[in-house]
Please model this.
Amino acid sequence: MNVVVVGSGIAGLTAALHAREAGHSVTLVTKGAIGDGSTGYAQGGVAGIYGTGDSAAQHAADTIEAGAGLSDEIAVGVLVRDGAARIAELIARGVAFDRSPDGELLLGREAAHRHARIVHAGGDATGAAIAQSLVAAVRSTDVTVVEGAFLADVLVEDGIARGIRVVVDGVASDLSADAVILATGGAGHLYAHTTNPLGATGDGIAAALRVGAAVADLEFVQFHPTILGEGPAFLISEAVRGEGATLIDAAGRRFVFDSHPDGELAPRDIVARAIARQAARQGSPVRLDATMIGRLRLAHRFPTIDRVTRERGFDWASEPIPVTPAAHYLMGGIVTDLDGRTSIRGLLAVGEVARTGVHGANRLASNSLLEGAVFGARAAAALEAPWQLPPMTVRGGQANGPTHGDGRSSDVDDHGTAFSRAALQRLMWDHVGLLRSEDGLRYALTTLRRWIATAPDPTTVAEREDANLLLLADATASAALARTDSIGAHFRESVAAPLLETV
Model:
């Protein structure tokens, strides 16, 4: 079988390797250089190794609780059941996870996990270690790698995916395939502030929408609670709080306990909203106090964060540092079954681009790398199996085709704001971000649809990215408007509350 994999993070690299090892001819297409993307930026680890008193069942329970009860329990069961095997596979492919002096894997704990069950590599460089090892593994095979290739469209004939159209050096060309696996990541650059690399512009989801593939749960956008509050976005891993760091207000008080009994280790959506509200109240960023961890431990456990904070002029071993939330991870995406199949025959999706049902309304920390490895392998294994379409009525969310929203306009005048990517990102941050209201969502949709109606046909890659962001912004705002209750990462207020501009 001729298989095209689009994307070279953990999900795409895993799918490509497994597909080739199963005997398929594989072409891996990636927007930048192979290994670019969100995986390499991941400071957190991979959940799925269980110590005394822990189990896969408890990992599943934590995942479902963090997902506000909207996670698909069967999908979560697959995730935790296959997790140990995928971690063992990563080790076999050369990922050097951190170990104790006696050779045992070191297990860390992060927010909303009841046990230490997360493996890391290089302290806070897990994603980079994984990307490096998997890229080397792909390079050692005869997988064809096409770098610098922008996904323009999925090619569908008679309801079946037959390949993709890519743009390389400004020239469009078609790649035929018997199966297409999308592993293009998320859409963090919908927002003014994000932890995502520049390439995260929703290209895979937008391409799937254009051919009528079902999507779901786009309203569930996870905002990481802690990026450095000054300078370019830089993530401060949740594992820092797992080691004992606290969040304090201007008076030095641990304010997150006002929102949840677990304080700093509450689910990410709760912590992020608590930070945003406190920062708005006091008119300045909140601070992360890691001084109690100690200088040597901080440098050893978090070498990347330690280096970058010092380069930015902060000595986090002796003083608290300013932090603020930023868009981090998309829980929704292209609807798939347990093997990555979408509603378009021949089209599969894995990783952040997919909506497997695992994450529900809020992703549990360190489940994303695990999901990419687990479902990347499963998609490759299912390539020659009989095709079964995933259900279009999705537990925990609504499945949509390329048309979204109720079409009603906002009564708020947008004053004719001209489109730019920065204007789009500011609109989404203000009105489809951490805190949402009906008026704000309608205002966003009115503006987005005017921009869409007047947008010229894209010709350059940047213009194609903008078109993808506009399409996905409309879908996200529409899904947020349709879900009138607040749950997980989707939080509705009666009146929009302004957020402090801190980054």
Observations:
- The two ends are 48 Å apart (CA to CA).
- The chain has three domains: 1-220+331-402, 236-326, 405-493.
